[in-house]
Amino acid sequence: MKIAFFVSTPGQAHFFNNIIKTLEEKGHEVKTLARNYGETLHLLNTFNISHFVFADTSRSKYGKMFLLPYHILSAYHYLRKLDTDLIVGTGLYSEYPSFLLRKPNILFMDAVSTQTELYLIKGFTNAILSPSNFTTEIGKRHIRIDSFKELSYLHPRYFQPDKKIFDLLGVSEKDQYAVVRFNAFDAIHDVGIRGFSPEERRKLIHELRQYGRIFISSEASLPEDLDEYVLRMPKEKIHDVLYYAKMLVADTGTMVTEAALLGTPAILYHPKAKRIGNFIELEQKYGLIYAFDHPEGLAEKAVGLFTQRDLKKEWEEKRERVIKEKIDMRRFMVWFIENFPESFRKMKEEPSYQETFA
Length: 358
Known about the structure:
This protein is α/β, with parallel strands linked by helices. The chain is 41% helix and 17% strand.
């Protein structure tokens, strides 16, 4: 089968990496279309995934909206030459070229920012996959998976932490450190949403640095006084950094979920933190994260965690429960893609069949 994947963000590069390689090993012909955003192209090159760049990114959210039709046409013209059997993606880009080409499309979603976004998506795709904790009802094309997308690459079957990261960070294994992640909030779905203000960032860093090393991973530009804390590390090593960290504080969701599934306590600040299924489940069912929809009290909570003894041991036990209860996302996605559309019908008739991928 000829399969095309759309990869628009670094998180999607991680998500699809093992899935793409497994499908190729099984004899399928896979093409990848990539958006030049953040470290996406760097990660694809690191993963040895050849790709066609269908879109560059604009600095502004409204610029992205203006350029969207051009990016869709760029992908359409590329795919038209390939006679692709199936198109797989995660956002606004993949379903429109597939609709124009009359090719089946599988869309993976784990969050919806607006009803407008959902309206623009659901009428142009054949199947929408989401985690079971997805809070939005989409319709007859929707299938819920009892897992997290991050388990496609962070499940213990696929990820083993590398202790060489301590040398790269310049810390010893006995030293404790925290990672702080700042989002740029420049995506289309980030319209009207903000994270930490510059002063809130300074306060958080100045509070935490009294108790251990601090490393900042930031998509947004930082003031000079915070430059000494910037994490200077190959992007493909970030999960090793997160695994051994005492704690993560972030105003962006993917890294919070990643930290939680690696057994690292995480604090999320986001205006919709209390309404997104992934974070509701991770906080209320598993106790792996703390979600704040406002910054008040967040710094105090972070200090409390950073100074707590035996914290990582407690979180490792919580992580083990998640691994036991969730299915293997990589195995499920490979099965669903290579057996589509029969796999769609199977899941509709027998949703519990997914349990065979535990």
